[in-house]
């Protein structure tokens, strides 16, 4: 009886593990886009604010919808294709990435490994030196780690040799109807 119980528990655990692995695999699959564009906008957004800003920016720049990508679907190869990237990201949890952006930093770090192993250059430095980027970081200054994910993202992207235009632009407590441009502060 006890061995049956152990077997059932093992099967359930195995199924849970398979489901988690499958979910991670699915969310990591890149949107198979050949961008054919020089600009892309990537967002990380838990409740939609950053995503809305990303879409509005795309509209203002007359970019097609396919140029607006969730960070979990953005790959290093996408960034190699474009000249400019705008990241619009919020921070969640205790200074963490939103769910649809939580895999990107690991992805970029994995891309560093071959370069680090070859000891050509430390990390993948200068691999994206053609790229210029901006970051709009949404957060709430009542949290101790204000806009932490935006700043973390900047550190990782900067390691590739890409150039940050201006500073990380922080937006405190974004509210769609009341936030003014003046509330958006480069740091
Ligand atoms: C549960 C929760 C945790 C949050 N954690 C942080 C945080 O650690 N740092 C921060 O600056 N903002 C934090 N925020 C604020 C959000 O980043 C902010 O509300 C943002 O506008 C949400 O944008 P989004 O809808 O694109 O996710 C948090 C908000 C919630 C609801």
UniProtKB/TrEMBL annotation:
A Pfam family it matches: Flavodoxin_1
Keyword match Ribonucleoprotein: no
Domain Flavodoxin-like, first and last residues per copy: 39-187
Keyword terms: Electron transport, Flavoprotein, FMN, Transport
Entry protein name: Flavodoxin domain-containing protein
Organism of this sequence: Paraglaciecola aquimarina
